[in-house]
Write a structure and sequence with these properties.
InterPro entries: ChyE-like, Class_I_gatase-like, GATASE
Keywords: Glutamine amidotransferase
Strand order of the largest sheet: 2-1-3-4-11-10-9-6-7
Organism: Microbacterium flavum
Number of strands: 11
CATH class: Alpha Beta
Distance between the termini: 4 Å
Oligomer: single chain
Domain Glutamine amidotransferase: 48-192
Order of helices and strands: EHEEHEHEEHEEEEEHHH
CATH architecture: 3-Layer(aba) Sandwich
Strand content: 15-25%
Protein name: Glutamine amidotransferase
Length: 244
């Protein structure tokens, strides 16, 4: 099988390594089958899509809607590299799955309106499949309403015409969409479990996701309801797109 590629942007080793371990767990892939590139540490370089089964983009500290002058040189480079890669991914309708930061990369590339209107605190929310989502192969095994982990400072306010809305939420209307047949993005985190999101809460305390005195409150918020279905989306993606 050709490997999958995970593009990561987390500078802190603990959540970065935990993210990779969680992607391995929920995709069912072995380390040799999921190659990680940490874009915050080094340039992406040349990517030949024919070498890969598909591409994942994980979450991270960057916001597509940040003012250009507020973005670091690293963020500007990462955005250029992912946008350039998406030029070919979208043109070829190549298997791609972006989670959280990944939805911003695809959304920005396709001309979505992205801002802080529908930001969500770190928590568990209910996500509903749309009619298109109910017939999409990645969501076929999920109930019409399922729970998911979220926590983001920006979100898509207006989808571009090229996107098909697959899932929505009460506080954030765009939770999942597809471009073409094979390019997917989610606002929620399908790669997370309670331990994984708790690790991130502790590491990113003080990064603006919640107030300084709300650590315990936030840790409790991600335990208010079980999240049991979203990880299957990643495994289904792998099963659908794994190439010999």
């Amino acid at each position: 099988m050709k490997p999958f590629l995970l593009l990561a942007t987390r500078a802190e080793d603990v959540p970065a390594d935990d993210e990779y371990a969680l992607f391995l767990r929920f995709t069912g892939l072995e380390p040799r089958q999921l190659v990680r590139r940490r874009l915050e540490a080094e340039p992406l370089g040349e990517i030949d899509l024919d070498d890969w089964s598909g591409i994942f983009v994980g979450g991270g500290p960057f916001n597509a809607s940040d003012a250009p002058e507020r973005k670091s040189a690293v963020q500007h480079r990462v955005e250029r590299e992912i946008s350039g890669l998406l030029d070919e991914v979208v043109a070829r309708d190549f298997p791609f799955f972006g989670a959280c930061y990944g939805i911003g990369t695809v959304g920005a590339h396709q001309g979505a309106v992205i801002d802080s209107t529908y930001r969500e605190p770190i928590s568990v929310v209910e996500v509903s499949r749309t009619a298109a989502g109910a017939s999409d192969p990645l969501l076929a095994g999920l109930p019409d309403v399922f729970t998911a982990f979220v926590g983001h400072k920006e979100a898509i306010t207006v989808l571009p015409p090229s996107a098909t809305l697959l899932a929505c939420g009460a506080a954030c209307p765009v939770q999942m969409f597809r471009v073409g047949r094979n390019v997917y993005a989610t606002q929620f985190h399908p790669e997370l479990d309670v331990d994984g999101i708790s690790t991130r809460i502790r590491v990113y305390a003080g990064h603006g996701y919640f107030a300084a005195d709300e650590l315990e409150l936030t840790l409790g918020a991600v335990r208010r309801a079980p999240v049991t279905h979203t990880g299957t989306i990643l495994r289904t993606f792998v099963e659908r797109y794994a190439r010999p």
